[in-house]
């Protein structure tokens, strides 16, 4: 879908069984104060609770601003994300899952202003608070500072304060093409691979603003944040292998990636009798 010059930002939200959280997310989108038009697209993945009806009520109250994209069957978070992003008409795309929310009414304006003035960056993020199910603060950086990351940084795992709820990205074909990559649908830490793909395909960088403008929520229904630590580690190893198979890197970077595998994942593979997997990973990096 082509962009609409009248719409500067497409807020793209995916949600599943977020009945108790989705209204908070939508309200945080609606409170944005901008000098440009934006749209709100919500991909609802056939929830088993009342998430869809909450969004439908908001869409009726804000016609032309909030658009409910309801799936008749559950297609999974990645396909939901790809579908919503494909429908985005804005020059920029701002991402936020339905269980997270924004806390600064100037968030979209600040990020657009930065990206408009700095063509060398494809993504603009900002600092976030991490909260639990009771809205208690679990983490917030004591002294937020500006940061930037390039392709090699993210490849080596440097991506501090680039959570999906903070991310604004240029709406480019080179970015959205990730939805045509079969391996993308095998990822677990999908947002990291999404960022890496955007950097690889555009040659641009990520900028992190020092402002704290979003809340990332840890809860038992979270896709990633609250899963068993052993399962999380297995998924991280899977993503690591997808990364080294599908992205380019120099001989020097290959050595750094091998160090990361040995330091973070090798012993885990051995302890879980994944010896052949370990050998395959090492051979791919030699």
UniProtKB/TrEMBL annotation:
Residues 10-149 form the Glycosyltransferase 2-like domain. Signal peptide: none annotated. One of its GO terms (molecular function) is hexosyltransferase activity. Gene3D superfamilies: Spore Coat Polysaccharide Biosynthesis Protein SpsA, Chain A (3.90.550.10). Pfam families: Glycos_transf_2 (PF00535). InterPro entries: Glyco_trans_2-like (IPR001173), Nucleotide-diphossugar_trans (IPR029044). Keywords: Transferase. This is Glycosyltransferase involved in cell wall bisynthesis. The lineage of its organism: Bacteria, Pseudomonadati, Bacteroidota, Sphingobacteriia, Sphingobacteriales.
